[in-house]
């Protein structure tokens, strides 16, 4: 089966077999990354440009490392000091980049839809590293790989996503992916942090952690997106932690072997108790970081194969 997309802009367009294809290839890259020789040649001769209009540590570093390990020429563009700050439009930036003939363009942008607009204006493959409140597809894929490795499967699990759902592109991408793979998805959070109409996504919505966490296999905590909040969404961080922060008492409602996840960066004592975050028997947060490099290697490898395919292979 072929991967039928030129870009990776979101989870929404992906079929379940395409999700599985990326995860299966990522499994091979996990083994490569754990070996002594951590280099492949899937991107040899290709140029990768990372454009991050928002600050990032984990995502940018893992994309950079993924490209380097696969042999790409990797360039990071400092968008804080870019021509966009001098008034250049996003489309003009795209046209300038196009003239440089990159093969892979990794973009994070604060506005939903901006990455899709760039993808329409360039000839290379574009990977969405997060756009506004829209999607963060590689985060959902690395979360899926983490779950599959911990639970032995990625279907018919009960997954709770807790916290700031309204502002989270991570939540949206995970809801889409987990739904495609036939999982039961529970959303837990205060009404102020729950998007209107979210139940139409086929999820269950809870305001009480004890009720929502009952017998779940996976507990996925989310960061409070303070930079996207323009009002009083929570009374205080102390009150938020009391009601929605994950601690041992709340986690006890989940299954005894439930795993705990967080996309990072964590606000300890606000979204999650530090003891839970560091519990090697429950927390897979560090595994998520490791899976991020492997998933991004797999995603760029698959898109590069399409770049190198002949017209006859594309039509096949």
UniProtKB/TrEMBL annotation:
Its EC number is 2.1.3.2. Keywords: Pyrimidine biosynthesis, Transferase. The keyword Transferase applies. Pathway: Pyrimidine metabolism; UMP biosynthesis via de novo pathway; (S)-dihydroorotate from bicarbonate: step 2/3. It catalyses: carbamoyl phosphate + L-aspartate = N-carbamoyl-L-aspartate + phosphate + H(+). L-aspartate binds at residues 86, 169, 223. Residues 6-148 form the Aspartate/ornithine carbamoyltransferase carbamoyl-P binding domain. It holds the Pfam family OTCace. It comes from the Bacteria. The keyword Transferase applies. One of its GO terms (biological process) is 'de novo' pyrimidine nucleobase biosynthetic process. Residues 157-302 form the Aspartate/ornithine carbamoyltransferase Asp/Orn-binding domain. GO terms for molecular function: amino acid binding; aspartate carbamoyltransferase activity. One of its GO terms (cellular component) is cytosol. It is an enzyme of class 2 (transferase). Carbamoyl phosphate binds at residues 58-59, 108, 136, 139, 264-265. Belongs to the aspartate/ornithine carbamoyltransferase superfamily. ATCase family. Reversibly catalyzes the transfer of the carbamoyl group from carbamoyl phosphate (CP) to the N(epsilon) atom of ornithine (ORN) to produce L-citrulline. Catalyzes the condensation of carbamoyl phosphate and aspartate to form carbamoyl aspartate and inorganic phosphate, the committed step in the de novo pyrimidine nucleotide biosynthesis pathway. Heterododecamer (2C3:3R2) of six catalytic PyrB chains organized as two trimers (C3), and six regulatory PyrI chains organized as three dimers (R2). This is Aspartate carbamoyltransferase. It comes from Primorskyibacter flagellatus.
């Amino acid at each position: 089966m072929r991967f039928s997309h030129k870009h990776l802009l979101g989870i929404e367009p992906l079929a379940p077999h395409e999700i599985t294809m990326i995860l299966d290839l990522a499994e091979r890259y996990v083994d490569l990354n754990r070996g002594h020789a951590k280099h492949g040649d899937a991107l040899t001769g290709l140029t990768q440009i990372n454009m991050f209009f928002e600050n990032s540590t984990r995502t940018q570093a893992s994309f950079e490392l993924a490209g380097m390990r696969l042999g790409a020429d990797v360039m990071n563009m400092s968008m804080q000091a870019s021509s966009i700050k001098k008034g250049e439009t996003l489309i003009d930036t795209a046209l300038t980049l196009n003239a440089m003939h990159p093969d892979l363009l990794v973009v994070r942008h604060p506005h939903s839809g901006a990455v899709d607009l760039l993808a329409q204006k360039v000839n290379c493959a574009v990977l969405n590293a997060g756009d506004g409140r829209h999607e963060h597809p590689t985060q959902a894929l690395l979360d899926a790989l983490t779950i599959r490795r911990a639970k032995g499967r990625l279907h018919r699990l009960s997954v709770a996503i807790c916290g700031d759902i309204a502002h989270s592109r991570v939540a949206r991408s995970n809801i889409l992916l987990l739904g495609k793979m036939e999982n039961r998805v529970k959303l837990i959070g205060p009404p102020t942090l729950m998007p209107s109409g979210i139940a139409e996504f086929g999820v269950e919505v809870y305001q009480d952690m004890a009720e929502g966490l009952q017998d779940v296999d996976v507990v996925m905590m989310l960061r409070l997106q303070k930079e996207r909040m323009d009002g009083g969404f929570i009374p205080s961080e102390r009150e938020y932690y009391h009601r929605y922060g994950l601690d041992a008492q709340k986690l006890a409602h989940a299954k005894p072997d439930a795993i705990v996840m967080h996309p990072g960066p964590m606000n300890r004592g606000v979204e999650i108790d530090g003891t839970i975050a560091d519990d090697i028997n429950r927390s897979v947060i560090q595994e998520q970081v490791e899976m991020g490099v492997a998933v991004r290697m797999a995603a760029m490898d698959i898109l590069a194969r399409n770049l190198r395919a002949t017209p006859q292979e594309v039509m096949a």
